[in-house]
Design brief:
By secondary structure, the protein is of the alpha/beta class. The protein is 52% helix and 7% strand. The protein starts with 14 loop residues before the first helix and ends with a helix.
């Protein structure tokens, strides 16, 4: 599908781009191949196609402050640079990891001078979600008065990580992971570009190796180009043995890349998305999907004890008393992970997840508990009915504590009708067992209780 040889000649480059490429001669391949215009951009056609509103706003120089939200390696920084180029704006780039308020003040001061001379300034803040509230507040006034146009880039959901005041003054554009076809096109351009890429090298790709790089990139163009560069470097090291031709085969890819680029942030939205997918797959009784999402999280470096805690929660929330063994098994899995550690403990988690997914489901206890919590908030906390109270002292006995209490064991089936809830809640039904799993027996028992109590009356 993606196989090609690297002997083809690249298209001619203009002198301007040739000079720029010369300045990048020592830069990584990913930096050298960074798109310089909308037309060179792969993916994100909803933003960069000639018909896209985003592109039209940029070309009309009417784009305001924006936040670009998307996974790594999909073109957020590149898009910001293209916007600056198209609008002839000064481009100031800072990283939220290292920049402080003092750095921002210097940029703002320069931006004010440019504004007085009629030139726009684009302030690009990479990883803007890492700015604290004070830092975000510091740029708010200059965004509002137009001193700078802000372009923020983030891999995290802006609604969680960006101040609402700043968010209200920007527009969020979502960038998606690149498709395999997009990644293949990125690689093909790099291997055929004689000026900025690898087109001057006599290299041939085996189709299987080509497919492997595309697959391992996980929709990340930067990762794909870094892997490509590593593979070529490994091939060059073998050149003395193989002759003049550099061949990139599966062995080369395996030795150079080692493993897939993993898209996962234990503290970000991906973390919450994946645990949600795991929980809902278990609830939906899909064993295969449940195991897959578990593996994805562990592969991304998720804390196995966090997963164990969430799996215990699944046992109580979604399986409940339909299968009382579910809670025991999940607690055993937690102990196993704690005792033997990883990676061996992963199998204990997998066993628990598979069991929960296949188990009969009931949220009856969860629903009952939620209803009780609601009643605790909305109703007065009436005293315990006097016949249910303990009477360890003579005074309590004289006050009638425990008087009239019916000892259940003295009645048929161990069931007895008496008021056990506070007066305001008499007759309230919280727990209604399902007709699944062990709760079938529980329903039968409660129905028997009601029948016997009816006889008692």
């Amino acid at each position: 599908m993606y196989g090609y040889a690297m002997r083809r000649q690249a298209d001619d480059q203009t002198g301007l781009f040739a000079e720029a490429a010369g300045n990048l001669s020592d830069a990584p391949l990913a930096a050298r191949m960074r798109p310089r215009s909308f037309d060179e951009f792969f993916g994100q056609q909803h933003l960069v196609s000639p018909q896209a509103a985003f592109r039209k706003l940029v070309e009309a120089d009417r784009l305001g402050s924006v936040i670009l939200w998307g996974p790594p390696g999909v073109g957020k920084t590149t898009l910001a640079e293209i916007v600056a180029g198209v609008t002839s704006a000064s481009f100031d780039r800072v990283s939220a990891v290292s920049a402080g308020v003092a750095d921002l003040r210097k940029i703002v001061e320069s931006a004010r001078h440019r504004k007085a001379m009629g030139q726009r300034t684009i302030l690009f803040i990479d990883e803007i979600h890492r700015f604290n509230k004070a830092q975000q507040d510091a740029i708010l006034p200059v965004v509002e008065d137009g001193t700078v146009r802000l372009i923020g880039a983030t891999t995290e959901n802006p609604s969680f990580e960006v101040n609402s005041a700043l968010l209200s003054r920007t527009r969020v554009y979502v960038l998606n992971a690149l498709s395999d076809d997009d990644i293949a096109a990125v690689i093909e351009r790099a291997v055929h570009d004689k000026l900025r890429g690898l087109g001057a090298k006599p290299i041939e790709f085996e189709e299987e190796a080509d497919r492997a790089i595309v697959n391992l990139a996980n929709g990340d163009a930067r990762s794909a180009l870094n892997m490509l560069e590593m593979c070529v470097a490994v091939s060059e090291a073998k050149q003395a043995v193989l002759g003049d031709m550099l061949v990139v085969d599966m062995q080369t890819v395996s030795s150079a890349v080692q493993r897939r680029a993993v898209l996962y942030d234990k503290n970000g939205e991906m973390h919450f998305d994946l645990i949600s997918a795991l929980h809902k797959s278990v609830r939906g009784s899909d064993v295969d999907a449940s195991l897959y999402w578990l593996a994805r999280m562990l592969d991304g470096g998720e804390d196995p004890l966090y997963l164990a805690r969430r799996i215990v929660r699944m046992a109580t929330e979604d399986i409940g008393l339909a299968d009382p063994l579910a809670l025991q098994l999940t607690m055993a899995a937690q102990q196993a992970v704690h005792f033997i550690g990883m990676p061996e403990g992963a199998l204990a988690l997998a066993e628990a997840v598979a069991y929960l997914a296949a188990a009969p489901k009931s949220n009856a206890v969860y629903v009952a508990w939620s209803a009780i919590r609601e009643d605790l908030e909305k109703t007065r906390n009436d005293p315990v009915p006097i016949h249910l109270r303990n009477a360890p002292t003579n005074l309590m006995k004289k006050l009638g504590y425990g008087k009239g209490y019916k000892y259940a064991h003295d009645f048929e089936g161990g069931y007895v009708e008496q008021q056990n809830l506070p007066g305001a809640l008499v007759g309230r039904k919280y727990y209604i067992p399902t007709d699944r799993g062990y709760e079938i027996k529980m329903r039968q028992r409660l129905e028997l209780r009601d029948k016997i109590i009816g006889k008692e009356e």
